[in-house]
Amino acid sequence: MLFNTVQFGVFFLVVLGLYHALPRKRRNSALLAASLVFYALWIPSYLFLLLADIAVNYALLQGMIRSRRPRLFLVAACIFTLGLLAFFKYALMAVETLAPVITSALDTGFEAPEIFLPLGISFYSFQILSLTIDTYRGDIEPIRNLRRYALFVAFFPQLIAGPILRGYQFLPQLARGGEPSWLRTRRGLWLLGLGLAKKVIMADFLLAPFVDDVFSHGGLGSAPFNLVALYSFAFQIYYDFSGYTDMARGLALLLGFELPLNFMEPYLARDPSEFWRRWHITLSRWLADYLYIPLGGNRRGSNRTYVNLMLTMLLGGLWHGASWNFVIWGGLHGLLLTAHRLIGRRPVDLDARVGLRDLPRILILFNLVCLIWTFFRAESFDHALRYLDTLFAFRDPFGWPLLQTGIVVLCALLHFAERGARRRLPELQNKLGRVWWGAAVEGAALGAVLGIAFLVAGVGSDFIYFQF
Amino acid sequence: MTSPRRRLSSLLVFLLALCLAILSVSFTAAQLTRLAGAEPGESALTPVRYLEGTFERLSRFRLSESRRRIAYLGDSTVFSLARVRSLPHLLQTALRSRLRGRPPIEVHSISYPALGIISHYLMAGRLAEAKPDLIVWQTSFTHFSSIWRLHNLHSAFTGWVELERLPELVGMPIHRGGLTLDELLLYQGIIALDGVEAWSVLRDEQSRVGQLRERVESWTAGWSGRNSEALFRQASGRKLLEENVRRNEGRRRFTAKIEQNRYGNTLTGLDPQDLVLQMLGRALDLFARSGIPVIVYLNPMNIDNLATVGVLDEGELAQSVALLRGTVEAAGARFLDLHALFRDEYFRDAQGHLVHDKEINADVELVRELIDPTIAELKIPGR
Counting one residue from A and one from B, how many pairs have CB atoms under 8 Å apart? Predict the structure, then answer.
């Protein structure tokens, strides 16, 4: 069930009503039930897979807590969780890669089996693993409550596309129970409204149609169209995914929970390392904590650091999907990070003011990131190469797509504005909260955004990150 | 800290302002799209509304014993914007001519582009309720492919599924048909709440906004002297066709990869547990229980092109045809295998639409194959 649908609106209103009507100690149970219903409304049979994943991992976790040889249970949990993820996500990729061999060996036509990826498996698998590993490391208090464990994994606002939660962030909140407040409700409504606007107005209405058009005809031969489509896609995927995350955070706030930030204006990054501290932050953090650092991080000399970076980014790419294009996408980002380390620049402060002198670095990095997005968006490696070939051939038979260029400029301006809004909105909300007409202004402003979103919602499509 | 009373009043003011703003902004924006001259585009409800009229006509003469009403189910190969060229109309004309108007025959088209077996399964209850004297059901192996199942808009038809058939529907792996439980509940809810009209108005307004972009493109073209985006779309459409299709005696034909995608696993042997096959069987069972005779035919395929591009394995295709025949005949319906009826030159385009010109009248020839079985199934006294 997509957040930008009427049916989700009805579902959430019912859940919210029941949640507030129930006594505090019953609320987690109600949320767990709602989360399972939410998941079952997509493919009912996959609910059993989710429940099995939760049950097996919880049993292994309890075994680990009680055992004198916890490492065995840790390995078992990793094998089980990653095995399930690999089966659903990568079995098909392996079969498709081997299909030509199978076809020639059997001398017959071969149709790869149709496997539907369980919604959110990449996200909740990483969440389960982080909890198990953190418990093993002693970083968090061992959890001994199945209901709370299940809710940690299946909490519906973030179940299917993150943010990827960590035990230390969410388990204490679950232990206390949701703490809804007027302030959280206002923040939640704002995040929900802005997230919806990002998704339906920006990503689906203003950006996706042009991107789809140009990428489906990538070999046509127009450099300006390919360039503008690449910029458009960069913003489309940002608005799509960050819009989803904002909605997820907003929904959680309405239920009284805080979810972590997942995006901080990534296209204002000045270097590749900063980009990954601003883009899909919870995944970057996860990869750093459970892959890059255990591999040795930067503690084992320069060469090993580069290898670790490349490995982490290649696997990060593969996490996004069963396609060699994603691996290439990850690999190219790995190369960027390696090159950045070779140059020897230090990481910058995320909260440091972005000045005019930063602009060249921002623009260079943005363009490099956009070029790498080609492999993420194109249907195949050949398609991506053809797309880039057209881009650099500088052929221009049609002129500039003026309207879309204007939309891209608008997106860039909004990206800067978002940074200001993120920093100043809480202060503004505080001020508005002190005057009687503040609530009316807030309601009207949010209503205006929602009104437009409501009208353009019919153009909508799935969230890009739901496929991962 | 603010008092609970103050918080409550703030919340009420907030919600009131929110609702007023949503209503006024969406209303104003809707008016602006009208002023810009944007017309409503296609939405998931377009085929639903189109077929509503057909069902209404089909049901109207239910009690008239003198007339024989045939429902002709199919996709775009059956449907035609020029109604006189549609297969239902050709069948009606041919039957009237053969039977010399006695009894009067009406053939109602329950066809629309991109409709398939799944859509017709979803509306089977309404068809059974309309009780036609015969159903002629065009099926195609393309209806089994994942492209057809997952990317065609049949979800709106879930609203037509009667309550008593819901357990059967939910018991099937409907996600393989691009359907989800929440969509099913949404459309059921809209029908139950008698909200079809309001929902249609909303979808119309939304689809109107979808058309707004092209209007704005034309305005910006006024500044630069040419509409680059429109030029690109036109040229890219041509280019895509040239890239993706093989020229074959001047006709556009698909490549091996596209043909494999179009026909899916029917080319390599259909799975007996296939969702589409299950739905076909269930719908036929329902028609049998309602006493409605059914003729199911398998649409002509461009076998020549499949052979030329190297994806034709006759044994495996025959296996798929046999499975389809078995499913149809097990439900007591009549099966006509027309998949190899025509050679390459009978196909107008790569999608399998038929040629009708001075030399070849493929659609008339196809209808000719249907006439005798149709008359036989109608059980007209004295024939």
Answer: 182
Residue A398 DSSP code: S
B203 min Cα distance to partner chain A (Å): 7
Which 215-254 residues of chain B touch chain A by CB within 8 A?
216-217, 220-221, 223-224, 226, 228-229, 231-233, 235-237, 239-240, 243
The string of pLDDT tens digits covering residues B6-49 is 778 888 888 899 899 999 988 888 888 777 776 666 666 777 77
- As given in the structure block, the two tokens for residue B42 are 């296609």
* C-alpha B193: how far from chain center: 26
Q: Would you say A126 and A167 are in contact if contact means Cβ atoms under 8 Å apart? A: no
Q: Do A7 and B186 touch (CB under 8 A)?
A: yes
Which of A294-303, B243-252, B271-280 tops mean pLDDT?
B271-280
**B13: which residues sit within 8 A by CB, 6+ positions away?**
A436, A437, A439, A440, A443
Residues linked to residue B254 through DSSP beta bridges, in sequence order: B245
Q: In 3D, which of B51, B69, B226, B39 has the Cα closest to residue B132?
A: B69
pLDDT for B50-62, tens place per residue?
788 888 877 776 6
Domain ranges of chain B: 45-201+246-378
Cβ contacts (< 8 Å) between B231 and chain A: which residues? Answer: 398-399
Give the ipTM.
Answer: 0.79
**In whole angstroms, what is the distance from residue A446 CA to residue A432 CA?**
14
Taking the C-alpha atoms of residue A298 and residue A116, their distance in angstroms, rounded to an integer, is 38
User: What's the pLDDT score for residue B64?
Assistant: 62
Q: Which residues of A are catalytic?
A: 320
Beta bridge partners of A248: none
Q: Choosing among A403, A408, A442, A446, which should be mutated to test the B contact, i.e. which has the most B CBs within 10 A? A: A403
- Judge: B14–A443 Cβ closer than 8 Å, yes or no: yes
Tell me the pairing of strands B294-298 and B334-337.
parallel
Name which of B157, B164, B203, B163 is nearest B178 in CA terms: B157
Q: What is the pLDDT of residues A50-108, one digit of tens each?
A: 999 999 999 999 999 998 999 999 999 999 999 998 888 887 677 767 766 666 665 55
Could you tell me if A49 and A120 are in contact, meaning their C-beta atoms sit under 8 angstroms apart?
no
* Residue B74 confidence class, pLDDT cut points 50, 70, 90: very high
Count of other CB atoms within 10 angstroms of residue A176 = 11
Instruction: Compute the nearest-CA separation of A165 from chain B (Å).
Output: 26
First to last CA, chain A: 16
Q: Tell me the CATH number for domain B45-201+246-378.
A: 3.40.50.1110
End-to-end CA distance of chain B: give it in Å, rounded.
90
